[in-house]
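Input chain follows. Return structure tokens only.
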Amino acid sequence: MNHSDFFKLIKQGVPCGFYLLHGEEEYVKAQAVKAVENTVDPDLRPFNVSVLNKPSPQELNESCETLPLFADNRIVIVYELADGTEASKYVPVFAGCPAETLLLVVFKGKLPANSAILKYAKSRDAEVVFDRLSLYECARWCMKHMNEAGVFLPQDVAQLLVRSVGDEMTNLVSETDKLIDYVGSGNAVTAQDISVCTRAALDVRIFDMLDMFTYGKTGDGLIALHALMDEGNEPMSIAAFLSSRFKLMLEARRGIDAGRQKRDTVAQMEGNKYANEKAFDAARRFTQAELLGLISDLSDTAFMKISGAAKDDKYIELVLLKHDWRQYPV
């Protein structure tokens, strides 16, 4: 099931048993765990909610076997599993979870397909996947969050906020809270407020900068590059990030050349769905050979710095200006 299905279960009264929570969207995952904890009377939580970090199978079993106090059920929340312990040794503990215990096993990130725990969870229909939210879901969350704080966020402005900040929920929460404080209760957020108050995510700004170059606006692209450096982003870090973006675009370009649709290509790419979609759109303006050339040139930036072939703030410029950006169609 996905995060939406799990939240519905919580509202209905989460049944006892074992559930595995994993996936890339950490903020929503944490909110789900918090929602489960909130189903327990606050006065009884110290007795009926146990939080374990990397327990051994024996420790986990003992916690699950503990009877609830002044309640019908108890909750055991596990973060990761003991280092050096075979995951398969935990499966009997999951299978023997008492009827009055709800066991949540929470992993950071997404488990590999060959995980013994994941295979068991799938066999019990107990897997809860927290994929990154779609842009629509992110915008809807921002609107709901602001509405609860007494601030009105129009749908089109919410979509602008997500496009500016990206779909990383931790960043969105921070930027949304800043907007709430900036606008104040009883007021509405405008596009101008977003431009003044929020800070765009680095990957969003990198792609915006690349758009400037690929559409022939070289001057604007250089201004955007220097703005990133003026804000304290190290040139080598920017070069590494640029290289990772071009590698992502190369993966998308290979999907395009293979005749795959955008949805299918993006789904097969690892990492941030928002960045993957941006990479796919940008990749349409390049050939594989051109992307390989840019990746190769960026890999030389470390040598350019060490050898003194270019000043710290110039070697990325030299790489970007080496290419004839006007050749790419609008």
